[in-house]
């Protein structure tokens, strides 16, 4: 299946995938570049992602199905992202992941090129408390054009990500994953927010101490978010509905 028909069981998921592209653009996480995918709920060895186009312009008919090799099931002459292997290789290695986002999120890039690690400073970014690895493509392939153009590089990135929710890509951006699309989108946005706040805090501290969230605080916060179905109102659905409503303004 390369085009998702209106009557398909996948329609709601594909609609959300389109919306996710628009939200990430509106929130300044992606610009003309970047991409987001979801694992197929029907075929876990496949995933859905837009054809190569600016995220803010993605439409329902742009969504394509890809196999575990990162190649489209039915290309139909459409352009495809060269870095689709980021998605295919992470899905292979992380069975807990059902959504992947790659962006050139501007606030995070300084933390991938300096000795300052990206750490959880804001409660909304408690998921960063498990640590944020940095992938340096030179360690996997020497000098390149910085793009994840094949499965080998995608695998190296996935291995660097490990079991973390976020990995920085030196001089390139980051990759963010989640158990579902809404969580992944929230993580991508709050990774950018946290990076900007952390940079500001470091400047304000002037070499002094910055108090980050303790590992225990991050764990408790994440546990509370996971239990949000009980109705506390602090989970990814609340964020999603707000960001989605802002698209129509």
Structure write-up:
It is a single chain. With 249 residues, this protein is of the alpha+beta class. It has a single domain (11-247), classed as L-fuculose-1-phosphate Aldolase, CATH 3.40.225.10. The protein has eight helices and seven strands; from the N terminus they run αβββαβαβααββααα. Strands 3-2-1-4-7-6-5 form a seven-stranded mixed beta sheet, with helices on both faces. β6 and β7 form a beta hairpin. α2 (85-93) packs across α5. The two termini are 34 Å apart. The relative contact order is 0.15. The model has no long low-confidence stretch (mean pLDDT 93).
Short description, anyone?
With 249 residues, the protein is α+β, with helices and mostly antiparallel strands. It is built from eight helices and seven strands. It has a seven-stranded mixed beta sheet, sandwiched between helices.
Key words describing this protein structure:
7-stranded mixed beta sheet, 249 residues, globular, 8 helices, single chain, L-fuculose-1-phosphate Aldolase, alpha+beta
Percent of sequence in beta strands? 5-15%
- Indicate the CATH class: Alpha Beta
What is the end-to-end distance?
A: 34 Å
Largest sheet: 7 strands, mixed
List the helices and strands and how they pair.
Elements: H1 11-26, E1 35-39, E2 47-50, E3 63-66, H2 85-93, E4 99-103, H3 109-112, E5 134-135, H4 137-141, H5 151-161, E6 166-169, E7 173-178, H6 181-205, H7 215-226, H8 236-247
Parallel strand pairs: 5-6
Antiparallel strand pairs: 1-2, 1-4, 2-3, 4-7, 6-7
Helix pairs in contact: 1-6, 2-5, 6-8
């Amino acid at each position: 299946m390369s085009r998702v028909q209106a009557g398909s069981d996948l329609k709601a998921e594909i609609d959300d995938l389109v919306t996710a592209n628009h939200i990430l653009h509106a929130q300044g996480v992606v610009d003309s570049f970047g991409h987001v995918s979801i694992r197929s709920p029907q075929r876990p060895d496949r995933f859905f992602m837009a054809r190569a186009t600016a995220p803010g312009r993605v439409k329902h008919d742009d969504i394509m199905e890809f196999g575990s090799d990162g190649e489209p099931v039915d290309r139909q002459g459409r352009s495809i992202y060269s870095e689709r292997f980021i998605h295919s290789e992470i899905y292979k290695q992380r069975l807990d992941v059902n959504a992947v986002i790659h962006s050139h999120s501007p606030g995070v890039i300084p933390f991938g090129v300096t000795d300052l690690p990206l750490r959880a400073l804001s409660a909304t970014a408690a998921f960063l408390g498990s640590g944020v690895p940095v992938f340096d493509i030179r360690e996997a392939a020497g000098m390149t054009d910085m793009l994840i153009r094949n499965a080998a590089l995608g695998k190296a990135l996935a291995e660097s990500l490990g079991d973390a929710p976020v990995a920085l890509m030196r001089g390139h951006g980051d990759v963010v994953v989640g158990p579902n699309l809404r969580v992944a989108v929230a993580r991508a946005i709050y990774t950018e927010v946290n990076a900007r706040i952390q940079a500001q805090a470091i400047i304000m501290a002037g070499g002094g101490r910055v108090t980050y969230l303790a590992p225990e605080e991050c764990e408790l916060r994440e546990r509370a978010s996971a239990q949000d179905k009980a109705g506390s109102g602090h989970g990814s659905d609340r964020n999603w509905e707000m960001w989605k409503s802002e698209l129509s303004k």
